[in-house]
Amino acid sequence: MDYVTLQILWLILVAVLWIGYLVLEGFDYGVAMLVPFLGKTEKEKRVMVNTIGPVWDGNEVWLLTAGGATFAAFPAWYATLFSGAYLPLFLVLVGLIIRGVSFEYRAKHPETKWRNTFDWMAAIGSFIVPLVFGVAFANFIIGLPVALATTAQNPYLMAPAAAALYVITPAPYFWQLFSPFALLGGIVLVVAFLFHGAVYLTLKTKAGELHDRVRKFASTIGLVAIVGGAAYLLWQNLVYPAQGALTKAALGVDLAPTLQLIGWIMTVVAALGLIAAWWFVGHGREGIAFISTSVAILAVAVITFSTMVPGMGFVNAAGDRTSAPLNILNGSSSPETLTLMTIVAVIFVPIVLAYSAWTYWVFRQRLGVENMPEEVALAS
Amino acid sequence: MSAETLARWQFGITTVYHFLFVPITIALSMLVAILQTLWYRSGEEKFLQLTKFYGKLFLINFAMGVVTGIVQEFQFGLNWSEYSRFVGDIFGAPLAMEALIAFFLESVFLGMWIFGWDRLPKKVHLTSIWLGASGTLISAIFILAANSWMQNPTGSDFNAENLRAQTDGLAGIVGVVLNPVNLATLPHVISGAWLTAGGVILGVAGWSLVKAVKAGSADVDTWRWATKFGAWVMIVAGVAVVITGDFQGKAVTSEQPIKMAAAEGLCKSEKAAGFSLVYFGGDCTKADTVGLITVPGVFSFLGKGDVNSEMQGLRDLTKTAYDTGYVRDEAGSTKLQKSQAGAVKEFFQKNYKADEALTELAPSIGVTFWSFRIMMLFGFIAIAIGAWALLATSKGKNPKGGSLWTAAMIAAPLLPLFANSFGWIFAEMGRQPFIVYGVLPTAAAVSPGVSALEVGLTMVLFTLIYGALAVVEVGLLLHFIKKGLPEVEEPKVLTDDDAPLSFAY
């Protein structure tokens, strides 16, 4: 494959990894946020935690793989984004840490106070992460302004850095992240995951009080997700449409109209997905409802990444959305590395998908309070 | 303090902390898999009890390893953006492959193992722990290849168009894997992990054995078996650690002579260079060697296999580096080091005066000298503890206990664990002032635009969170160690959808 094809392929593959993460871990964030609110008894809470117990850690690896793939395929993107979004990413790390230990540790002690503490840690961690990512994605759509690093920032900087390392500007770029559009993005992602998680719970719990309560909640939060999602996506399409900067120069074809069309089509798909999910979950068709929320999340991710062609969410220091100073063409790895990574991905992504799917099959049983053993964590 | 200094501290704190969980995860997962295999083969209850007991300790440890590991993957970009940009073409690929090939394997199959006791047939369930454990090993293979590349950047070249390092054609990948530092580091780290996890098995079992003997409990036989098992693991792994350590010492002497010269306090190049036992300060401007109680010829022997061979001292090495940009002899330098020597020389001469080279171009003698020796000392004591435990349980005897025995059992996991830490402190501090040896100085690699306030604030918060988690983790480990062997039932695959699960959070 030629270099440009590889670069486009890897932007798509990074997007695929993000979609895997958002669709899969999205529901376990939702479930964890709901545990303290919808689990009325200890056994109900345990039912909820156990619906995601065997799978959440594997779901999180999609994020780590997306991060690793960004580093490997687009080192300049990884470098500029991670250092520029310093405090938001720190919050994500804190969220991932406190929720990550909670599932394992809540089961290690029967005391109510101990368990409630970890349930809340899991809920707060699972709230912080999508909130920050929602804000971050909205900022990629708006465009993060970048400029070349200077020796004023680091006197030890060497010549190559001063000519090739971009820094989000002005640094620290923190309060600028919280524009109304970005805040709406954060809230919408949290709401979407609450809906997605509630639908997943209806799919994974047996008929009973907990199931009914979750279904009722899903019907309510589903409406919020539809309204919030529609507002966010219309705002995005009308004010921040995909620009496809440089595509004419690089590919000989201006991709902007195509990307904008994708934006509208995916908006319709997302809206239909949310509405269908809301309707089906209300009518006890939980499997289709879950597929529908998954499709809606996928559609929003596609829109987000289509606005990042080819500038990866970066614009010049003046904030001009038609500029792409740092892009997949000048920010990617060498053709050799991209080729090697493509071979590895072609071999291992299907294997990972196969055994992940098998886990979901093994743990396909719906759970109810009667499935919870009296003594917790009897075995290891 | 500058953002750069704070970023160095943040990396040090989070990485040393992360690596407290890594060696235990790598080797204890395999040891639990071995215990479960013994149960699967023999059907003996004691092996199932030990599987579940050590499995629980492993999982408490694993959870911490996972969450602190996420920080590792992120912080290259957070604090070291120029590093990330400069090396991503080579360094990023093993990280991505580690996630795709190793992290999925360990996360998915350990989830399967934890929850699968009553869902999977015995053989499939056993396979899941082996696959999960393999994931931890594969992860080590990738990350050590990446780290070894930072120590000795093989298989790569400078791309003048993108102004960064990149793989030297597709064959460059082979160069990265066959890096002599990598070939020595991988077995050394893995055997160090086994020494540590053997120490976990022995420490807990040896302490519990004495308790069980005193109480006349039926668990004596099980703990006796585990004590001997842990001791054997420590001895075999310990021998491997020593042998691979010797390989690694020679590789480092060849690829990073400044690091070894600093660790030995050797200032003046000399034949039959000695190994000193202690160092209490003193610099190299005039002295021949700054260590005390020196055994002649030992450094030459450890470094080159011949007591009479000539070892280069810090004065010569740093002068050459300052004058030429080469941190080792030009002929032995890697392609990337050769291509960057001019830039490195310019960096040195711009930022330091010629008489500062001795201190600025070499790592701290105190840190390298002592971390190297503490690592070895702790490792040797750990092996001795393993041997003592074996003697104390030989010919049907049981250890009598007492405070020395208790101290040894506490030390059994902790000494090798801290030996791992000191080994890494030696490896990473010893490559200063470089982040990529002989190519990119650490000071040039830090994220421009990230303020000291941001790095300092997050460092304090990480430390507080890590501290709180450490209290919870140690508390849980002690709780379950004191609780002793669990009662076990023969696991059965559930067919009734309404039956209580045998395991649930």
Which tags fit this structure?
heterodimer; A: 380 residues; mainly alpha; three-stranded mixed β-sheet; globular; B: 505 residues; two-stranded antiparallel ribbon; 16 helices
Structural summary, described in words:
The complex is a heterodimer of chains A (380) and B (505). Chain A has one domain. A three-stranded mixed sheet of chain A has the order 2-1-3. The model of chain A has no long low-confidence stretch (mean pLDDT 94). Chain A is built from 13 helices and three strands; from the N terminus they run H-H-H-H-H-H-E-H-E-H-H-H-H-H-E-H. Chain A is 71% helix and 3% strand. Chain B folds into two domains: 325 residues; 102 residues, no CATH class. Chain B is mainly alpha-helical and 505 residues long. Chain B is globular and about 75 Å long. The model of chain B has no long low-confidence stretch (mean pLDDT 95). In chain B, helix 3 packs antiparallel against helix 4. Chains A and B meet through helix 2, helix 3, helix 4, helix 5 and helix 7 of A and helix 2, helix 3, strand 2, helix 11 and strand 8 of B.
